[in-house]
Design brief:
The complex is a heterodimer. Chain A is about 40% helix and about 25% strand. Chain A is an alpha/beta fold. Chain A folds into three domains: about 200 residues, FAD/NAD(P)-binding domain (3-Layer(bba) Sandwich); about 110 residues, D-Amino Acid Oxidase, Chain A, domain 2; about 60 residues, no CATH class. In chain A, strands 7-6-15-16-17-14-18 form a seven-stranded mixed beta sheet. In chain A, strand 6 and strand 7 form a beta hairpin. In chain A, helix 1 packs parallel to helix 4 and helix 14 packs antiparallel against helix 15. The two termini of chain A are about 45 Å apart. The relative contact order of chain A is 0.16. Chain B is α/β, with parallel strands linked by helices. Chain B folds into two domains: about 220 residues, HUPs (Rossmann fold), CATH 3.40.50; about 30 residues. In chain B, about 30% of the residues lie in helices and about 25% in strands. Chain B contains seven helices and 13 strands. A nine-stranded mixed beta sheet of chain B has the order 11-10-9-12-8-1-6-7-13, with helices on both faces. A two-stranded antiparallel sheet of chain B has the order 2-5. In chain B, strand 3 and strand 4 form a beta hairpin. Chain B is elongated and about 80 Å long. At the A-B interface, strand 9 of A face helix 5 of B. The complex binds flavin-adenine dinucleotide (FAD) (2 copies). The site of one flavin-adenine dinucleotide has 40 residues of chain A, from helix 1, strand 14, strand 17, strand 18 and helix 10.
Chain lengths: ~450, ~280
């Protein structure tokens, strides 16, 4: 390989994982080349999105002074259990979200990724955009030497490579670290719209005191036609982010179009009033890898580390992904720094990266929820069944009909039994528990 | 071979809005791109550099943000980029713009005389196509507008043969160099920039010239003061109502033709309706 550019480390992909890796390595003194196919970092990216700054703080301790483009702090969050005509809300709002360093912010990726990548550039990272990495160049023994790009004179050489290419992990697959494309049962497809609305209007509709308050709602049940999946509504500064996501397999089996599901969700009698008069600013779709701990790609090869969505580091139970990606990116960067110090880029040495992740929340959480996708996959009815039951039970519970309360309770129990046998319920609960406990 | 290319950063036309109060374009928050014709002009300059060696200089007058456009030119292969940026340049029309660009080009040429000056045929936002000709006049160099092909160019004899688009066809002209060309897109196809250019551009900062240094521009001839254009009113023309529709499928051909002719008679276009011929409607 006669390279057109040489550096100490190459990072593929300027998402949360790649940028975190690039900053960590640049701060450690390496010459880093970060390659992104989008016109700007973030231009091609999309998430819900709630960002968790704990992971950001470990990459950029003084991030707050650098004015990250957060939309709103999340001061209220929870779940809506949506039936076709009703909703049970389980929401948590607390002043603690304001006094303690806030645990979460809503954000839009086009803005956030651009800011995050700018921090990398300021740390000395060479950012190359509008350029796709087409191939990992390897020697006869399979060790990574660098990458080829879709540009003339586009070979870049480095002894270590961090692949943070996101869910569509073609390079990871080409190295044999991931076994082919994800099967549809292990990948969710989300569609999202950003709807513009004046700040004051958002605050009035969601009961927010001002720009320093925000809501994050995850919605189950009718939003996804009772199928395994979630919908979300998050408040941005001057917009509402709204979306739905379902396992690809459910979409295929039931012949559903994601945009129609979103349109249906937006028209739901409970949802519609929040959106009245809002105009669509942008819309998009994106995949979420949900294959879980047991089917993750290998995380290391000779001269290669894989981080973020490319390695399926998504905790779908808590809609966390960007923080796992940033943490993994940072740890990949730290491992690359150690490899440079030792002059050892072998897969054997790079396994230290996997060990770091095992000791952190990243792999601990993924391990705990390893059965979650299987749980939903094997009991697809569960969400619709219980969500509808909760709504009907609530209606009975909150309605005075001159009926003795004992009878009402009996009726509610009857509603449940009518949907699912006693054993069925016990079975569901056990499976759910196993899904949650790991 | 030294080519100077003037480029303009323009709002992405798919996003442009008009301020309803002032009637001027709202440029705030609208994504910006390099004026499409200018990209092709730059590409032509790069092709000439590849063939004859030498350098390509790009310049633009615009806000600090226009530096992005210049960096993109360096990615494409420009060697030197100059940003003319100063609040005092603001509000310039074609008169003031041409004055500034002409004097800036003259200043560049003191150290490095140019063989060719390339401009876009027009900017897609202003659309006047006046800046290039205005600069050529001020610099007293030959002007060829709507250039679509450089058939030949000889830096030694300092001549070139240029094809330009005219309404009736193509005009082939021979010119001495330096000359100023305003170009069509066909002048050169845009090549994908090689990676080393992107590496260079990542570290490149364009030179910034303001209203006084290194060129002391005449304050009376720049910006809004130096502009002769007054925007008295800009408005969106009312949407034209769609015309009446008649359906052949519903009414049959004979009826439709008859009705259409009748309308023309009513409107005074025809004096009388000619007898309508087709009888067999199923053939319609
Ligand atoms: C609808 C939705 C909602 C979500 N909500 C949340 C949430 O609320 N909170 C949360 O924490 N997470 C959320 N996530 C998950 C989160 O977005 C991801 O886990 C996270 O973005 C992963 O980061 P990454 O850097 O690994 O990958 P990405 O963000 O996908 O970045 C990969 C980058 O690599 C680039 N790239 C890919 N291939 C190449 C190549 N060959 N050459 C050059 N560049 C390349 C891409 O253009 C992209 O910029 C959500 C995801 C979705 C889809
Ligand atoms: C009726 C009218 C309304 C106007 N309204 C506005 C307005 O709302 N807002 C506003 O900002 N301006 C306005 N202007 C000013 C004007 O549109 C331009 O800013 C400027 O004068 C350039 O003219 P043009 O865009 O028509 O360029 P053209 O003459 O069409 O451009 C031809 C070529 O000249 C070169 N060129 C043009 N401008 C530059 C530059 N700045 N730097 C380097 N090279 C350049 C490029 O190569 C370009 O392809 C208005 C002008 C008129 C006549």
């Amino acid at each position: 390989m006669t390279p057109n550019h040489r550096c100490d480390a190459i990072v593929v992909g300027a998402g949360p994982a790649g940028v975190a890796a690039a900053i960590t390595m640049a701060k450690g003194g390496l010459k880093v080349c970060l390659i992104e196919r989008g016109r700007l970092p973030g231009a091609k990216n999309l998430f819900g999105g709630v960002l968790y700054p704990h992971a950001l703080a470990e990459v950029i301790p003084d991030y707050a002074e650098r004015h990250p483009p957060f939309e709103r702090p999340v001061t209220e969050q929870g779940y809506w259990l949506l039936s076709p005509d009703s909703v049970v809300r389980i929401m948590h709002k607390s002043v603690h979200y304001k006094t303690a360093p806030t645990g979460a912010y809503t954000a839009l990726r086009a803005r956030f990724d651009a800011w995050f990548a700018e921090q990398a550039v300021q740390a000395g990272v060479l950012l190359i955009t509008k350029t796709t990495v087409t191939e990992v160049v390897r020697d006869a023994r399979g060790r990574a030497l660098g990458v080829a790009t879709d540009r003339p004179e586009g070979l870049v050489q480095a002894p270590i490579l961090v692949i943070a290419e996101g869910v569509n992990n073609l390079l990871t697959q080409s190295l044999g670290l991931a076994k082919g494309d994800l099967p549809p049962r292990y990948v969710a497809l989300s569609v999202k719209e950003v709807l513009a609305l004046p700040a004051a209007e958002i605050e009035a509709r969601f009961g927010l005191a001002g720009a320093d308050e925000g809501v994050a709602i995850d919605i189950f049940g009718d939003a996804t036609l009772g199928l395994p999946g979630t919908a979300f509504i998050y408040t941005d500064a001057k917009a509402i982010s709204i979306g739905v996501g379902l396992l690809l397999e459910e979409l295929i089996v039931h012949n559903l179009k994601p945009y129609e599901i979103l349109a249906r969700f937006k028209a739901h009698p409970v949802v519609r009033p929040y959106l009245a008069g809002a105009t669509v600013l942008e819309y998009g779709a994106h995949l979420i890898p949900e294959q879980g701990y047991d089917r993750m790609p290998d995380l290391v090869g000779d001269g290669v580390l894989i981080a973020g969505d490319a390695a399926a580091m998504v905790d779908a139970v808590h809609r966390e992904g960007s923080n796992l990606a940033m943490t993994a990116g940072r740890m990949a960067g730290e491992t690359a720094l150690e490899a440079h110090r030792r002059g050892d880029f072998s897969a054997a040495f790079l396994r230290a990266y996997r060990t770091k992740l095992e000791e952190s929340f990243v792999l601990k959480d993924l391990k705990q929820y390893r059965r979650m996708t299987d749980f939903l996959d094997s009991t697809p009815h569960v969400i619709g069944t219980y969500v509808d039951f909760m709504n009907e039970a609530a209606l009975r519970y909150f309605t005075a009909q001159g009926m003795p309360k004992r009878e009402m309770e009996g009726e509610i129990l009857g509603l449940l039994r009518g949907r699912r046998s006693f054993f069925g319920i016990a079975h569901d609960m056990m499976k759910l528990l196993r899904g949650l406990r790991g | 071979m030294h080519t100077i290319v003037a480029i303009k950063q323009v709002p992405d036309t798919t996003h442009v809005r008009i301020d309803p109060e002032t009637g001027t374009l709202i440029r705030e928050g609208v994504p910006a791109v390099i004026n499409p014709y200018d990209r092709h002009a730059l590409e032509m300059a790069i092709r000439l550099k590849e063939r004859f060696g030498g350098t390509v200089t790009v310049l633009t007058m615009g806000p600090p943000k226009a530096a992005e456009a210049l960096v993109e030119c360096v990615e494409q292969g420009a060697d030197r980029a100059i940003l003319l940026s100063d609040r005092k340049f603001g509000g310039a029309d074609t008169l003031a713009t041409a004055y500034v660009i002409a004097h800036a080009i003259a200043a560049i040429q003191v150290e490095d005389p140019a063989d060719l000056l390339l401009f876009g045929k027009q900017a897609i936002d202003g659309d006047t196509a006046q800046v290039g000709p205005g600069v050529a006049t001020r610099l007293a160099v030959p002007l060829i507008t709507y250039a679509m092909r450089i058939e030949s160019l000889d830096p030694a004899t300092r001549t070139a043969i240029i094809h330009r688009r005219i309404e009736q066809g193509i005009e082939v002209l021979e010119t001495t160099l330096p000359a100023l060309l305003t170009v069509e897109k066909e002048i050169a196809t845009i090549a994908r920039a090689p990676l080393p250019n992107l590496v260079r551009a990542a570290h490149y900062r364009p030179e910034t010239w303001d209203a006084t240094t290194p060129v002391p521009f005449d304050p009376a001839r720049i910006g809004i003061k130096g502009s002769a254009t007054i925007v008295s009113k800009a408005f969106t023309p009312p949407r034209k109502e769609p015309g009446e529709r008649m359906s052949v499928a519903e009414s049959g051909l004979t009826r439709v033709v008859g009705q259409a002719l009748q309308r023309l008679v009513t409107a005074g276009v025809l004096s009388s309706a000619p007898a309508t011929a087709p009888r067999d409607e199923s053939n319609a």
